[in-house]
Design a protein that fits this description.
4 helices, six-stranded mixed sheet, alpha+beta, 6 strands
């Protein structure tokens, strides 16, 4: 884990994901289950696709070690979702276990929701309610639950602003609120 992610690792993870994705698609088409389980399967499938698409977007050929590491993490997340889908299709009663696991409390930021739920594209507002930009990347240690910060962009030609964890006041449903003003942030 201390070494940078190599391109060959990303290639192997993508190959594994593509193999599982094809099987998951076939298995999901054959499933006939109660509506609650089908909704859960669709949600997990969407999470799987989202993680894989994000990994492909940031893990391009010229990606640096940080981006390759993020792509690796996203591909592992997609593989985990594919594995979970396979388990739920094979043994639908596991859905209750998955539901109970998802209900466990997470490591919280100083606000309402966990920083682990922050997604790229979420709006970021300063302490005055002014929109600073959109989340581009979340940086932190998922093992310890420690947030390092978020990268925010206010537009295509604008520089990325690295917001430190101490400036994140709260994470609410679909947005990040800061404890500083937009003027207090530097690209």
């Amino acid at each position: 884990t201390d070494e940078p992610t190599r391109r060959s690792e990303l290639h192997a993870l993508r190959t594994a994901y593509e193999s599982l994705e094809a099987r998951v698609d076939g298995d999901l088409r054959a499933v006939s289950a109660e509506p609650h389980l089908l909704a859960q399967l669709r949600r997990i499938r969407a999470e799987m696709e989202s993680a894989a698409e994000y990994a492909n977007a940031i893990g391009l050929r010229d990606a640096g070690p940080v981006d390759r590491g993020e792509a690796r993490w996203r591909l592992l997340s997609a593989l985990e979702c594919a594995f979970l889908l396979g388990q739920l299709v094979a043994v639908p009663t596991l859905a209750a276990v998955v539901h109970a696991r998802e209900a466990e409390p997470e490591i919280e930021s100083s606000g309402g929701a966990s920083w682990l739920r922050i997604e790229p594209g979420w709006p970021v507002r300063d302490c005055d309610g002014v929109t600073v930009g959109l989340v581009q990347r979340v940086r932190g240690d998922r093992e310890t639950g420690e947030l390092a910060g978020i990268d925010v962009s206010s537009g295509i030609a604008a520089a990325i602003v690295a917001v430190p964890a101490r400036a994140v006041a709260s994470v609410d449903a679909g947005e990040v609120l800061l404890s500083v003003t937009a003027a207090g942030l530097r690209p």
